[in-house]
Write a structure and sequence with these properties.
The chain is mostly helical. The protein contains 11 helices and no strands. The protein is elongated, with a radius of gyration of 22 Å.
Length: about 290
């Protein structure tokens, strides 16, 4: 059975390449801080709800490092609490879309025929609409709320994974080792699970990191429009929307949640680029070891 021979560079540990990539060095601390903030949310509930009526729309100070909102609530505490929503978006929506899209893409690419036509034409129909417009349609049908927003984002993201997986499977299913497995009688489900899926792991990992940033932006937009997280639970998009009504009185109310969104999205994009280069055996390192 013929197998693909990995280049020497491809056998080097991926983590070692990431450790030397400056993009990963910048992205990983930001994402670690995000996870730590989400984990700290249960300890911030009381501070998040506390109101300081003597300091409404106050700027950054020793008592409130990022200022207060129109009700006197601490902006830093609410940003930390809102990070849990971002983590849920990154894990739940992209995780669900990854699983569903991978299954559909494998079936469409390997089985072909009418199944491929049905899956791909449905995916094309969903992809014909802008992501946010389609997400707004799904949320409008289901009703506002975080759970429905997560469902909407997962639904509109699934076709993206399905199309990427299908394209990879179409090129892999003609390889000699796949043909040999079919000849010896390996079931189709086993071929897809044992022979095709492992070769998709790298592509899916990079694509998932890119889709996380898209999902975060979509949830922030839905929250901005009041269709995702509902008060009093904070989310970064809703905090930006609330701050736009008080920009003349307090610039920090919108700026700091907006910066949190910007840094998180940029971190996931940089991590995706670093992962792509680390997994690409034929691409030289952009930041070689000193």
């Amino acid at each position: 059975m013929a197998t693909d021979t990995l280049a020497p560079a491809a056998r080097r540990p991926i983590l070692d390449r990431l450790r030397r990539d400056r993009r990963a060095q910048l992205a990983l601390p930001v994402l670690l801080l995000l996870v730590m903030a989400a984990a700290a949310r249960p300890f911030m509930t009381e501070r998040m709800r506390a109101t300081d009526t003597d300091n409404l729309l106050a700027g950054p100070s020793a008592q409130h490092p990022l200022g207060t909102d129109e009700l006197g609530r601490d902006v830093l505490a609410r940003i930390i609490s809102g990070s849990l929503v971002t983590v849920e978006v990154a894990t739940v929506t992209v995780g669900a879309a990854l699983v569903a899209g991978t299954v559909l893409g494998l079936l469409a690419g390997y089985r072909g025929g009418w199944l491929d036509a049905v899956i791909m034409r449905t995916s094309d129909g969903l992809l014909a609409f802008p992501l946010l417009v389609l997400a707004l349609t799904v949320v409008a049908a289901l009703g506002p709320g975080l759970r429905n927003a997560l469902i909407a984002i997962a639904v509109v993201t699934t076709p993206r994974f399905a199309r990427v997986v299908r394209g990879e499977v179409l090129s892999l299913r003609t390889r000699e080792w796949v043909s040999a497995a079919r000849i010896v009688g390996v079931p189709q489900s086993a071929i897809m699970r044992r022979h095709l899926l492992p070769h998709l792991a790298g592509t899916l990992l990079v694509f998932a990191a890119l889709q996380v940033s898209t999902a975060i932006m979509a949830e922030a937009a839905l929250s901005f429009l009041g269709l995702s997280v509902q008060p009093p639970q904070p989310s970064w998009g809703a905090m930006v929307a609330s701050g736009t009504d008080h920009l003349s009185a307090s610039w920090s109310l919108s700026v700091f949640p907006g910066l949190a969104i910007l840094l998180t999205v940029a971190a996931f994009n940089m991590l995706a680029d670093a992962l792509r280069d680390a997994l690409d055996a034929h691409r030289p390192q952009l930041t070689p070891p000193r």
